[in-house]
Design brief:
This protein has 351 residues and is an alpha/beta fold. It has 10 helices and 15 strands. The N and C termini lie close together (8 Å).
């Protein structure tokens, strides 16, 4: 019996996309309360690029194979909650960029009958990240006596055309009915898409509009935004502090623009009473992810069509094209999600 699978591997030091290749690895064995998923689609995320470069290693005890998500069929199960051949989305801390991945039963979601596996590949990591940031990390959605309604709050989403960015914007506009959403992006094409297709108040091409913070202050009559969703970090920190409102929230979840800063950071935070919150998803516990997934399933996925939410897939690559996929993501050209085709739908062979 063949116990080998195709999986993405890295030639150290991994600084360039060309360091990625397809290797043969043993198919994972499963423990109690786990399922083995035959992967049809996976995807790539910024965290994969950081891990490839040695900047964001897999958590202890997790697979060293890249990939934080997978979509496919349960092919083996030691869980009473999942049956063989169930169509599932998996959220994992590693191992998704392979033909098979072992997943704890708590970190699986049933793919809705109306959703294709291809579209499901664009859901797990980016939508759960966006949902977590907005509903679990930010306090703007929580009902508190002194807080104005979320619909009247103002938001700034950095990397607005990314997978997480487009998901955040849709949650804000279509689920919460927020009026004022701003976003940054890196091209005029993305700017047009965000304004015309996703309906945000204003998008800023930061390459041409470096003063987007000043423009936001003018558009908000010098009040500023209530929440910034920041995956950029150091290169935008001053602009974030400048255009945040007093008592605003700064939700930090990525560092594409670096982590080292100079200047009067703390005085600006203190002067405006800015609430700085940081979050990741990859390193969260199985139980945390399970609770998050159930909440997302109940509040968003079950009403995906009713909210008129869109699955936004920019480009699909085959597993053997993983280096090209990473190169494409690093070019920052994508609008929405980059997914990886691993196997054909009909390939549900017995192990």
């Amino acid at each position: 019996m063949n116990n080998l699978m195709r999986a993405v591997a890295i030639r150290p030091p991994g600084l360039q996309p060309e360091s990625l290749y397809i290797n043969k690895r043993e198919i994972p064995s499963i423990k109690e309360n786990e399922c083995l998923v035959k992967v049809v689609y996976s995807a790539i995320n910024r965290a994969d690029i950081m891990q490839r470069k040695g900047l964001y290693p897999a958590p202890a005890g997790e697979s060293d194979i890249l990939g934080l998500e997978a979509v496919g069929f349960v092919t083996r199960t030691k869980s009473s909650n999942w049956q063989k051949d169930a169509r599932v989305m998996a959220l994992v801390a590693g191992g998704g960029n392979a033909e098979y991945v072992a997943v704890n039963e708590k970190n699986l979601i049933k793919v809705p009958d109306w959703m294709s596996l291809r579209n499901a590949a664009a859901i797990t990591e980016v939508w759960l990240t966006a949902f977590q940031l907005l509903f679990w990390i930010s306090s703007v959605t929580k009902e508190e006596q002194w807080r104005k309604p979320v619909q009247e709050s103002t938001f700034l989403v950095h990397a607005g055309a990314s997978g997480v960015g487009t998901s955040l914007i849709q949650l804000l506009k279509k689920v919460l009915n927020v009026k004022n959403v701003f976003a940054t992006c890196g091209s005029e094409l993305k700017k047009k898409y965000l304004e015309e297709s996703l309906g945000i108040s204003r998008a800023f091409n930061y390459k041409l509009e470096e003063d987007f913070n000043e423009k936001i202050m003018n558009l908000t009559e010098s009040r500023g935004v209530d929440v910034v969703f920041d995956c950029v970090g150091a290169s935008f920190w001053q602009k974030n502090a400048d255009c945040l409102a007093v008592d605003g929230e700064w939700i930090f979840y990525g560092a594409m623009g670096g982590v080292r800063i100079e200047g009067d950071f703390f005085s600006k935070i203190l002067r405006k009473r800015i609430h700085l919150k940081a979050s990741t998803l990859k390193t969260r516990s199985i139980d945390y992810k399970h609770a998050l997934m159930k909440d997302f399933e109940t509040r968003v996925l079950s009403q995906f069509n009713a909210f008129n939410l869109q699955v936004l897939i920019d480009k699909e690559f085959d597993l053997e094209q993983i280096a090209e996929a990473h190169k494409y993501m690093e070019s920052n050209a994508n609008i929405g999600k980059i997914i990886i085709k691993v196997t054909d739908l009909e390939e549900k062979e017995e192990l």
